[in-house]
Amino acid sequence: MRMLMYNRDARDHVRGQAAESPPGRLLLGERPIELTPRQKEILRLVRAHQPITGDQIAELLGVSRPTIRSDLSLLVMLGQLDAKPRVGYFLAEPAESPAPVPWRDLRVREVQSLPVIVRETTTVHDAVITMFLEDVGGLIVADEEGRLQGVVSRKDLLKFTLGNASATSLPVGMIMTRYPHIETVTPEDRVVDAAKRMIEYKVDSLPVVEPSSGDGQPPIVVGRITKTTLARLVAEWGTSWS
Predict the structure, then answer these.
(1) Nearest-CA neighbor of 114 among 81, 93, 150, 85?
(2) Residue 216: phi, psi to the nearest 5?
(3) Fewer CB within 10 Å, N side or C side of the chain?
(4) Distance (Å, rounded) from C-alpha 218 to C-alpha 222?
């Protein structure tokens, strides 16, 4: 189950206001946020079937899981939904002491998604299949301990396979960008800084890793953050606040 992971403290900032708001209309500070029809339907489905996974919600709505990813992200951020790995989504309990959401200080851990990981020995063919099944633009390569080994993008796979019929049977380790020549972020980094890093290095996503332990080993992968995630969040916030 692939769902966005959020920090409870950040969500609690808005729950008190959300609990006192009229149905389908939330208050963030002094600004009203109008939920979309699909977001209201998601809340209704969760209320009726909780706990329920993102895939099950998408199936009941008749859409794909990626289609509602940003809706679920916003509802969790607004404190309307809660999520637990291997359990699913359920209605969140309101917080007792609300405070304004510090958007500019939003942390990566609050919006990061689960990483899509392959091994260095995974064939190019299997990597391509995984990329399309998971609907991602890149894969993170890690070892059995989850330590970062490299990354491989859609462009890497395309360049390697064009005109090379036997390329699909080769391991992704031959074409990946290897650590430490990879830009990463930690869960405590600001989302705005992650966005700036993506722009600076012209990449579509960044692995989220645990802070270095100083032992010289590659860091452990705990998530990923993508341009798509950022764009969806901005679009949802902009639509809700307009």
Answers:
(1) 85
(2) 85, -5
(3) C
(4) 13
**Using an 8 Å Cβ cutoff, are 104 and 237 in contact?**
no
Domains in the chain: boundaries: 8-101, 117-229
pLDDT tens per residue across span 99-115: 444 567 789 998 899 99
Cα angle 89, 90, 94; round to 5: 130
Per-residue DSSP letter, 121:
T
Tell me the backbone φ, ψ of residue 100, rounded to 5 degrees: -60, 145
> What's the CATH code, domain 117-229?
3.10.580.10
Instruction: Report pLDDT digits (tens) over 47-70.
Output: 999 889 999 999 999 999 899 988
What pTM does this model have? 0.57
* DSSP codes joined into one string, 10-60: HHHHHHHHHHHSPTTEEEETTEEEEPPHHHHHHHHHHHHH-SB-HHHHHHH
If residue 232 lies in a helix (H) or strand (E), which one and from where to where?
Answer: helix 227-241
Cα-based angle 195, 117, 3 (whole degrees, multiple of 5): 65
Q: Which fold has domain 8-101?
A: Arc Repressor Mutant, subunit A (1.10.10)
Rounded CA-CA distance 99/200 in Å is: 33
* Mean pLDDT value across residues 139-155: 94
Query: How far is Cα 57 from Cα 53, in angstroms, rounded to an integer?
Result: 6
